[in-house]
Write a structure and sequence with these properties.
131 residues, mainly alpha, elongated
Length: 131
């Protein structure tokens, strides 16, 4: 098992943070859109919630230093999932779904675990390929 790479090992940390912010922005935007396609998928969207939040946490776990910062960001992502669900109902788009909130939290935990044990050097490998 490899240790998670520190942000100072990455050659392009600002690029990776920028991509992470784009991922985060896309999640927020799609969550608040009133898109009929998204609403049609609502019955089977739990896997989508899990995968989305696993990707989000997995990405940021690549660029964060230390267990506590990852724990804090993970908690913030879980809170974000709750807030977005509540906002969806508040602005009248959809009904808040506790199942979606739970799926988001499961995704954060899975992303943290998977990228800690399996994909913890993904960004370093990408940098080596392209530099």
């Amino acid at each position: 098992m490899h240790a998670t790479p520190a942000i100072n090992q990455l050659r392009y940390p600002h690029l990776w943070w920028g991509v992470g912010i784009l991922i985060l922005t896309a999640i927020i935007t799609v969550s608040l859109l009133n898109n009929p396609l998204i609403l049609k998928m609502a019955e089977s969207d739990k896997i989508g919630h899990i995968l989305t939040y696993a990707l989000l946490m997995g990405w940021f776990s690549q660029i964060l230093n230390g267990f506590l910062s990852k724990l804090l960001w993970g908690a913030l992502f879980i809170l974000l999932g709750v807030i977005l669900e509540l906002l969806q109902q508040r602005i009248g788009m959809r009904i808040s779904d506790i199942g979606d909130m739970v799926a988001n939290a499961i995704g954060v935990v899975l992303g943290a675990v998977i990228f800690h044990f399996i994909g913890n050097r993904l960004l370093l490998k990408i940098e080596r390929i392209f530099t």
